[in-house]
Amino acid sequence: MALPATGNSTMTLYTVSQIARRTGLTVRTLHHYEAKGLLNPAARSGAGYRLYGSYELLRLQHIVSLKMLGFSLKEILACLDVEAPSLAEALARQVDRLREVVVRQQELLRRLERIAQQAINGETIDSETLLNSIEASTIMEKYFTHEQLETIKQRGDTLGPERIKAVEQSWPHVIAGMQAALTLEKDPASEEVQLLARRWRTLVREFTGGNAEIQRSMNTMFREDAATMQAKTGIDPALMAYASKAISLLRD
Amino acid sequence: MALPATGNSTMTLYTVSQIARRTGLTVRTLHHYEAKGLLNPAARSGAGYRLYGSYELLRLQHIVSLKMLGFSLKEILACLDVEAPSLAEALARQVDRLREVVVRQQELLRRLERIAQQAINGETIDSETLLNSIEASTIMEKYFTHEQLETIKQRGDTLGPERIKAVEQSWPHVIAGMQAALTLEKDPASEEVQLLARRWRTLVREFTGGNAEIQRSMNTMFREDAATMQAKTGIDPALMAYASKAISLLRD
DNA sequence: CTGCGGCCTGACGTTGCGTGAGGGTCAAGC
DNA sequence: GCTTGACCCTCACGCAACGTCAGGCCGCAG
């Protein structure tokens, strides 16, 4: 099968466009493959026209096949040019690569679907808000597991958009109040701060649904990505510690 | 939130490398985004150094987020530059696109896995043979359903590599015999041709496993892609018709 | 002889930057 | 004041796999 390129000159020869039609490629592509050293014409006519023989046609079909499997031209050249470097190995590598790609794409798809769903549910036509929630999800991807994210999403679905919006609108006020109390060095056990703490805890539970794992992941997120979280929520580690202290002092 | 870019000059300003560090991008990338009109510095220092404010940082984070969702720079520009063209819509489109991509990749992965498996099973270190079977699978993808391909693969697994190899080696002889009979215009009912027909049918059944659907798909393949099939197997429509006739005359 | 289709060789455009080349700028130490 | 490193600037080429002209030669039919 491995015929040498120096075939007998009595074999039928084809022009570029004929080869292109037979393989479904374009003439330009054949030029390109020649430039890359993938496929040289068997000969040239007097006028310099490219002429391909059956060996070239066969080789081109091999090239097309490998290209359809996702190999780059460079890899194809390596597979076809030398006899040695085992096509089977290349196939195995390609399978591994593609598997990773598929996994990543699927994860991305899941994220996108979650975000898009959220955008539709919330009637969020406001780009600013939407971008903020996208960024929130970006960070959350780092700290929550897939199951946790799924749980959170389902919880969001059951709560409904108005409820979520209400919660989101409540946060700034509570945060500001807590921050003020911290700045004024009020006693976390004082009645005023305890009231804030109760509201704070309620809002947190609104998000965590009382799930301890989610609570832990959230705490980790605030600890590790303190700068970002402060920028997004206004909660810095000091405030977090103060609020936690106040909540721990709640009696009920 | 939608602060104009013309912020007050008292805001803290950052240099390129500072912005790069904060966003995990490279300086070159920031240059690129500026060239593409995605993100212009808030100002330039006397020496021409790029200076970014908090608005630019925010915008850049949005850009990064959208890029992570798979949008192209052009799309991001469209989403961010004008307020109008609804990000939610773009998200929906992106979901659709990605879904299609994932499906295609998964199909390709399945094909690759089948081929790689076959390469490992058959100890096929011979690139020529492997390439031929890849091409066979390429064509088969066109005519067989996924279930059929799965059935064929499983049948191949149960038969084992030696059996398959034996079948493949038997074919050329049978085909040559049948072709000779056709050329000599021998009676399909004659004892000699009937013997060939019986062997032919056996080989076909070895492949189809007696599955009528697979048989039909195979026939379609030989009909629609006659040229290719002739090149690969040596069976042209005329020979196929002759063989079919002979098989239909078999008595048992 | 002219026209039309096919072929040729450059060579630039695309996407998202990486990677220098060649040359100013800035704060610090001598 | 001078040097040294760390930064910064603006070109500008490179990659992958071709698409898409531009300008011009070849060959055959009318």
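Residues 26, 28-29, 31-32, 36, 45-49, 72-74 of chain A lie near DNA strand D (CB under 10 Å from a C1').
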